[in-house]
Amino acid sequence: MKIHFPDECPEYCARDFVVAFPAQVDDTRVQCAIPAEALEDHFGAASLREEDLLAAFESNRRRIEHAARNLLNEIGAKPVLLHSGYFRFCD
Asked: What pTM was computed for the model?
C-alpha cells in the first residue's frame, strides 16, 4: 500500500473542532482529521481558535502525518480521526 500526503493546506472544521487534511492511499483520496483536543494536549495549541489549531498542526505536521500513516497501514483507505488517546500510546 502506497500512502502519500498531498502538500495541501489543512482545513479547520468549526462544527467538529477538527483540523482535516488529505491522504492518498494508492489511488484513493482519504480524509484524515485531528481534533482540537489532541492538538492542545499533545502539540501545544494555545487555544481552540482556528489560528492556534492550524499553527499547532503545521508545526507538528510530520508527526501527525506519521501517526495517520500508521493507522492507514492498519485499516486501509478509510477515514482517520486521530483522537488524543491515540497519541498517549504512540508517544
From this structure: 0.94
User: DSSP H helical segments within the chain, as ranges?
Assistant: 36-43, 50-59, 61-75, 84-90
Give the residue carrying C-alpha cell 507538528.
60
Q: 34: domain range? A: 3-85
Q: Which three cell numbers stand for residue 73?
A: 497501514
Digitized pLDDT (tens) for each residue of the chain, 91 residues in all: 999 999 999 999 999 999 999 999 999 999 999 999 999 999 999 999 999 999 999 999 999 999 999 999 999 999 999 999 888 877 5
State the Cα–Cα distance between residues 3 and 60, nearest whole angstrom. 18
CATH number of residue 35's parent domain: 3.30.160.140
Would 90 be classed as within a structural domain? Answer: no
Could you give the number of structural domains in the chain? Answer: 1
Q: Which residues contact 32 (CB under 8 A, 6 or more apart)?
A: 20, 21, 22, 23, 68, 72, 79, 80, 81, 82
